[in-house]
Amino acid sequence: MGQVTTLDGRTALVTGAGRGLGRGIGVALARAGAKVVLVSRTAAEIDAAASEIRDAGGSAVAVTCDVLDLADFEAVLDGVGVVDVLVNNAGTNDPMPFGEVMPTVYDKIFDLNVRATYFVTQAVVSRMIAAGRGGSVITVSSQMGQVGAANRSVYCAAKHAVEGMTKALAVELGPRGIRVNTVAPGYVETPLTAPYFADEEFRADTMRRIPLGRLGLVADVAAAVVYLADPAATFVTGTSLVIDGGYTAQ
């Protein structure tokens, strides 16, 4: 599966794992030696991702589950056993001017980005504590959890909430040996963001704002997640690893 096997013997669960960042993260964790549990609402996507990992010599199982259904997710955990690494990747966005945001849009974004992240983490961490061997929780946040942007008031609010949640949990769970961090990607070309970059004006403006002069790659984010899951990051908790090519440095 690859040369680096620092996560041998550990189980990593990735939500929203069917495509884009989630799939890339799952593949990278498997290459690092983890048994990967891929969770998504779309069975065909995670089945394909799990097959890709197994074909390359890794260990992966695909579990169809909507993380908004907490009872369903608890049942998934009952079948999986102890999770050593949780990656909260499931999320959504719906950019629009502040004055046009309806409660349904607000609820959709907060339900998946914040509520589901909170209670999925709670369910996994309770089992980590019971097992008594620590763990690592990594949530895929965003550069928009660090700054603000027009037409993204709800998304920014949700990702800032995730960043605050992460700091609080790091303080509370540190004595249990559980590390809690985020990765905060900037603009990465994925199926979710592809429609935005199809707009040449938006793409050009975005590139102008990134000092490194390119869009992020899924592999850039996946590598950061593997680091935070790895024993090499054993003294890293309560922080956000920003992967944005320098966008938020300005």
From TrEMBL:
Record-linked SUPFAM superfamilies: NAD(P)-binding Rossmann-fold domains
Enzyme kind, highest EC tier: oxidoreductase
- The reply on keyword Oxidoreductase is yes
Q: Which domain of life is it from?
A: Bacteria
* GO molecular function term, any single one: oxidoreductase activity
Q: Identify the keywords attached in UniProt to this record, alphabetized.
A: Oxidoreductase
Q: Which PROSITE patterns match?
A: ADH_SHORT
InterPro entries named among the record's database cross-references: NAD(P)-bd_dom_sf, Sc_DH/Rdtase_CS, SDR_fam
Oxidoreductase is among the record's keywords = yes
Q: What is its EC number?
A: 1.1.1.-
Hey, which family's this protein in? Belongs to the short-chain dehydrogenases/reductases (SDR) family.
Q: What is this protein called?
A: SDR family NAD(P)-dependent oxidoreductase
- Can you name the source organism? Kutzneria chonburiensis
**What is the organism lineage in this UniProt record?**
Bacteria, Bacillati, Actinomycetota, Actinomycetes, Pseudonocardiales
